[in-house]
């Protein structure tokens, strides 16, 4: 499946109960994807944190990886119902809506910094649809067409003066270009 197929599937999402908080639901495919990684990620974080003198945990991801990052952050440290591992910051790029408003409240219940970067007409931040009960998490930072300037959006997650102004006019190329380098090809060439 390519990005266009993935976006089409998210127009008709299935949600599943997120067992860590009352009333929380998350998009089923994102949840299954995170669950497939969860044991390994949690074990590695638990192994590495004690080895650091002043450990700091940052979580990041792009696209599906951004949805996984949000679920990871919720799992590790969003509230007392989680594993209680402190998450210092979450930075995501082109993140879709992961869960409902109860999940968004649970996620933001932690005392971490959470920025959700969006780029101009990227279609991914618009799915699954808000009208289907999905709500963004974190503070949106909206980058213009050329990635040269940005705006820190209001805290609602759904600021109509940021990426939501382009919900009907999207560009997959904007999803593949965050902070200038295109996210295609071999990433090692960019490092």
Automatic annotation (TrEMBL):
<dbReference type="InterPro" id="IPR029058">
    <property type="entry name" value="AB_hydrolase_fold"/>
</dbReference>
<dbReference type="InterPro" id="IPR051218">
    <property type="entry name" value="Sec_MonoDiacylglyc_Lipase"/>
</dbReference>
<protein>
    <recommendedName>
        <fullName>Fungal lipase-type domain-containing protein</fullName>
    </recommendedName>
</protein>
<dbReference type="InterPro" id="IPR002921">
    <property type="entry name" value="Fungal_lipase-type"/>
</dbReference>
<dbReference type="GO" id="GO:0006629">
    <property type="term" value="P:lipid metabolic process"/>
</dbReference>
<dbReference type="Pfam" id="PF01764">
    <property type="entry name" value="Lipase_3"/>
</dbReference>
<feature type="domain" description="Fungal lipase-type">
    <location>
        <begin position="3"/>
        <end position="130"/>
    </location>
</feature>
């Amino acid at each position: 499946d390519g990005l266009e197929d993935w976006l089409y599937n998210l127009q008709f999402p299935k949600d599943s109960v997120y067992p860590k908080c009352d009333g929380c639901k998350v998009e089923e495919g994102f949840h299954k994807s995170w669950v497939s990684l969860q044991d390994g990620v949690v074990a590695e974080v638990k192994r590495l944190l004690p080895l650091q003198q002043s450990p700091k945990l940052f979580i990041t991801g792009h696209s599906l990886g951004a949805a996984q990052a949000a679920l990871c952050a919720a799992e590790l440290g969003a509230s007392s119902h989680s594993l209680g591992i402190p998450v210092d910051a979450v930075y995501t790029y082109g993140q879709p809506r992961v869960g409902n408003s109860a999940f968004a409240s649970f996620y933001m219940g932690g005392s971490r910094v959470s920025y959700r970067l969006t780029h101009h007409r990227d279609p991914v931040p618009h799915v699954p649809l808000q009208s289907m009960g999905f709500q963004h998490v974190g503070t949106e930072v909206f980058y213009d067409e050329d990635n040269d300037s940005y705006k820190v959006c209001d805290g609602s997650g759904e600021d109509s003066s940021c990426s939501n102004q382009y919900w009907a006019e999207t560009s997959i190329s904007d999803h593949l270009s965050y902070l200038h380098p295109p996210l295609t090809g071999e990433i090692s060439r960019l490092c």
